[in-house]
Design goal:
Helices cover 61% and strands 1% of the residues. It has a two-stranded antiparallel sheet. The chain is an all-alpha fold.
C-alpha cells in the first residue's frame, strides 16, 4: 500500500521540532535548490496560534493603563477598553481556530514566528493611540508602537507633557515588553536559527559560558526574573532620588529596555543630576548580557569578570567618553568639571546602548563629538542584552577574522584557528557575522537615500536612517520637533523608518530569510 502523500499546501501532521544540530534554513534552502527538490509548504497554524495568544496577552495588558486613567477620572480609559476588548476577542477567536496538539516548532516556523512577532504586536499596541489620546493617525500610531516594541525611542507625538497618565504608562509597557521579548529571542531562538553568529552561544543544554542551564523555558523564566528585578530596582532608585511615581515607573521601563521613551518633552533634561547618574548606571547594567546576571544570581560572579565582550564594551564607553571630554576641554575651550563628565557619560551611554535619552543638545559639542556619538550608535551594547545595533561581540569576531587574514597573508602555510573567549570560532559563525555586517551597512545606505528622496534635509535623512536601523532613538535636523520627534516628517518617511526599525530590531537576516520563496517549502 502506497504511503499517504500530503497535499502540497499542507505540512505533515508532526513537524520536526527545533534541534540544535539541524541545518540552518539558509543551508536547507541551498540544498533544496541544488537538488531541485521542493517539499510541502510550512504549516503556519502553530505560528498563528502563538501570535494570537500573544495578542490576547497584549490586550489584557491594556487593563493597567485603562485602570490608571479611570482612577484619575480621565475619559481616555475608554480607548484602552475598546482596544483591549478588540485584541482579546479577535485574538481569542483566532487562537481557538488554530489550536492543535503541541508538537514543537520547526526551524522555519521559529523564523516565521520571530519575524511576525514585531509586526503583529506593534499593530495591536497602536490601537490605544488611535482610539484614545492623542487620537493619532494610523501612521503616527504605528510609528509610536513600532518605536516602542523595537525599543528605538523616537516619537511621532508633539506634546508629551500633555498626554494622559495611561498613555505614558502604555508607551513604557511597549518598551518593556519589547525589551524582554528581544532578550528571550536572542538567547532562545536565534542561537538555534544561527542568525548573525548567535550560534556561538548555542550548545546542547544552552551552555552560556560555563554552567549548563536546563531547558529553554527555564532560561526564559530566569531572564524574566532578572529583568523584573532590575526594573523594580531602577524604579525604586528613581523614586528615592525624587522622581515622581509615574515618571519613575515609565523611565525605569525605558531604561531597562534601553528604549528611550520619556514622559517629558525635555527627556532627562527635566531631571536632576542624581537621577541622571542613576540612569547611567542602570543603562550600563541593561547593556550587559542578561545571562551573566542570571549566573550572578546563582552565586557565580566569575563569568562577568572573564567575559571579554563586557570588558570591551566598558572600554569603548570609557574611551569615547574620555575623548569627547578632552575634545570639549582642549579644542573647544570648555571648562572641565564634574558636570561635564556626567553630561558626556550620560549621553554616550544612552546612545551606545540604543536608549537615546537626552540631557543636553549634543550637536553643540563639536563635529568630532557628533561623529563619535554616531559611531557609538553603530556599535551597540552586548549580545544577549536589550541593546540593539551590531553589538560588540560581532565587532570582536570581525577583528579576529581580519587579524587571521593578515596573519595568513604573512604566513600562507600556517593554520591559525580563530578563538574568542577561549572558544573556537567556526567558519559558519564568521560567515554569519560577515553577512550581518554587509546587510546592515547596505540597508542603512538604502534607507538614508530613500529618506532623502522624501524631501528630508540630508542631515535629517542620515540621522533618521541611523536611528531606525540601529534602533537608537535620537534624530537631528531642521524637520525634527522641539522634543526630538518626527511629527513634521512626510508620511512616506515615517513608514520607511517603521520598516527600518523593524529590520534593525530583528537583525535583518531573520526577516530576509522569510522573504525568500524557497523558504516556504521544507
Amino acid at each position: 500500500m502506497a504511503a499517504r502523500q500530503h497535499p502540497p499546501w499542507r505540512a505533515p501532521a508532526s513537524p520536526r521540532p527545533v534541534q540544535a544540530g539541524a541545518l540552518s534554513p539558509i543551508a536547507a534552502l541551498d540544498r533544496s535548490l541544488r537538488d531541485g527538490q521542493s517539499g510541502p509548504m510550512i504549516d503556519i497554524r502553530p505560528v498563528v496560534h502563538a501570535l494570537s495568544k500573544l495578542a490576547v496577552a497584549m490586550g489584557g495588558l491594556m487593563a493597567l493603563p485603562m485602570a490608571l486613567d479611570w482612577a484619575q477620572g480621565n475619559a481616555n480609559w475608554q480607548g484602552f477598553l475598546q482596544a483591549g476588548v478588540a485584541a482579546v476577542v479577535l485574538g481569542g477567536l483566532v487562537a481557538s481556530a488554530t489550536r492543535r496538539p503541541d508538537s514543537g516548532l520547526t526551524v522555519e516556523q521559529a523564523f516565521l514566528l520571530t519575524s511576525s512577532l514585531w509586526l503583529v504586536l506593534p499593530a495591536v499596541g497602536a490601537l490605544p493611540f488611535m482610539l484614545g489620546e492623542p487620537g493619532a493617525t494610523i501612521t503616527d500610531a504605528m510609528f509610536e508602537a513600532m518605536s516602542g516594541m523595537s525599543t528605538t525611542g523616537a516619537t511621532a507625538f508633539v506634546r508629551l507633557d500633555g498626554l494622559p497618565a495611561g498613555t505614558h504608562l502604555w508607551r513604557g509597557l511597549l518598551h518593556w515588553t519589547g525589551g524582554l521579548g528581544i532578550v528571550v529571542v536572542a538567547m532562545v531562538f536565534m542561537p538555534v536559527m544561527r542568525v548573525g553568529g548567535m550560534q556561538f552561544f548555542r550548545s546542547e543544554g544552552f551552555d552560556t559560558g560555563g554552567k549548563m542551564l536546563p531547558r529553554a523555558g527555564s532560561i526564559a523564566g530566569q531572564l524574566t526574573q532578572v529583568y523584573v528585578l532590575l526594573t523594580l530596582g531602577c524604579a525604586a532608585s528613581y523614586a528615592a532620588l525624587g522622581m515622581p511615581g509615574l515618571d519613575a515607573v515609565v523611565h525605569a521601563m525605558s531604561t531597562c529596555a534601553t528604549g528611550g521613551f520619556s514622559s517629558r518633552d525635555a527627556s532627562f533634561g527635566a531631571f536632576s543630576p542624581a537621577q541622571q547618574y542613576a540612569a547611567t548606571v542602570f543603562t550600563l547594567i541593561a547593556s550587559l548580557p542578561f545571562i551573566r546576571m542570571v549566573q550572578l544570581m546563582q552565586g557565580d560572579a566569575e563569568p562577568i569578570w572573564r567575559d571579554s565582550q563586557i570588558r570591551a564594551f566598558l572600554g569603548i564607553v570609557a574611551a569615547i567618553t574620555g575623548t569627547i571630554v578632552l575634545y570639549r576641554t582642549l579644542w573647544l575651550g570648555g571648562e572641565p568639571s564634574v558636570g561635564m563628565l556626567r553630561e558626556v557619560s550620560f549621553n554616550v551611554v544612552t546612545i551606545i546602548s540604543g536608549t537615546g535619552f537626552a540631557s543636553s543638545d549634543v550637536t553643540q559639542w563639536g563635529h568630532l563629538s557628533f561623529v563619535l556619538l554616531i559611531m557609538a550608535g553603530l556599535i551597540g551594547g552586548c549580545t544577549g542584552s536589550t541593546c540593539c545595533s551590531i553589538k560588540v561581540f560581532r565587532y570582536q569576531v570581525l577583528f579576529q577574522a581580519v587579524r587571521a587574514q593578515l596573519a595568513q597573508m604573512q604566513s600562507p602555510h600556517r593554520v591559525q584557528p580563530l578563538r574568542l573567549q577561549g572558544r573556537r570560532l567556526t567558519p559558519e559563525v564568521v560567515n554569519s557575522v560577515m553577512a550581518l555586517f554587509t546587510m546592515f551597512l547596505l540597508s542603512l545606505a538604502v534607507l538614508v537615500v530613500a529618506l532623502a528622496f522624501t524631501g528630508l534635509h540630508p542631515r535629517t535623512a542620515l540621522t533618521a536612517g541611523w536611528t531606525s536601523i540601529a534602533n537608537v532613538g535620537p534624530i537631528w535636523g531642521p524637520e525634527v520637533t522641539a522634543n526630538g520627534g518626527v511629527a513634521q516628517f512626510p508620511a512616506t518617511a515615517k513608514w520607511l523608518m517603521i520598516l527600518g526599525m523593524y529590520l534593525g530590531r530583528l537583525e535583518l537576516i531573520t526577516v530576509l530569510v522569510v522573504l525568500m520563496p524557497r523558504f516556504w517549502r521544507q
